[in-house]
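#structure-requests
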Amino acid sequence: MNFNLTEEQIMIRDAARDFAKNELLPGVIERDEKQQFPAEQIKKMGELGFLGMMVDPKYGGSGLDTVSYVLAMEEISKIDASASVVMSVNNSLVCWGLETYGTEEQKQKYLVPLATGEIIGAFCLSEPEAGSDATSQKTTAIDKGDHYLLNGTKNWITNGGTASVYLVIAQTDVEKGHKGINALIVEKGMEGFAVGTKENKLGIRGSDTHSLMFTDVKIPKENRIGEDGFGFKFAMKTLAGGRIGIASQALGIASGAYELALKYSKERKAFGKEISKHQAIAFKLADMSTQIEAARMLCIKAAWEKDQKINYDLSGAMAKLYAADMAMAVTVEAVQIHGGYGFVKEYHVERLMRDAKITQIYEGTSEIQKIVISRSILQD
């Protein structure tokens, strides 16, 4: 086992850290309050290669490994989880899905501008009645010969209003159940495609989350990903990698809160000495640091397995489950260490606490991760 990062991985991590501090930190509280999408910052992330990190350079990507992606996700998430979720969806769900399963024509038309950050994408699986139960798709894509007719509603869609390309999971043959589901590439502006109002959320408020409505949208057959009926398998394979991205986001949120709490504990005095010298606070910091390091190891192991072409379903689910729960616990403690100051916006930790909650919910709730993990260990 080698726990040393390569020079390239260190360079990527440091570049992400510098970008987060210099470009994302200014205005992050205001963007959260106003629910403002970080459009200018996302554009710069694309120019720096952060939106197509693992995509082959021949398609405009950076050609990096998944470990580098995890390191960059942590650094971006320390400062602005609303920006990092855009990065996660574009990399893990949209670009990876298209590069792995798309046709050459689909890659040239959609993957290249997505990987370069010229446009961003969205992944559309959840519905009003199909969240954790992804097999219960009510959105339909009826086969009309040379095209599909798409009808239905998707909700909780990250990048819902700002994306240009949407990967939509829809039911073509109800009798075949999950084997009758397809994945379709939908473009913004297609007739009959409407974007609903932006959700007013607890956390990641800068990220634009919308419902999407499809009314008799004509989708050309060449926009289907994979063979007929491949959609559900496509969604599950894609989400398996997405878990690594969200685990890394949770890790970053926790790590950012911990660094702020550590700094504050060395400055704030109570009873004649810095609060870090009181055992109650020192032990909190010890627990937080240990939990963060454990989550980091789980994230990097899952990323390494993905890079080695080893099945990472179990390691990805474990990383997301632990990192998400850890992020919630650590951010709560960071607020506690700050005391009353932790409850006000200018100290950042209350925002990080709010941002942490969603990591236990999206791209597979913590309960779904336990199903994945238990099925895996009980098969052995």
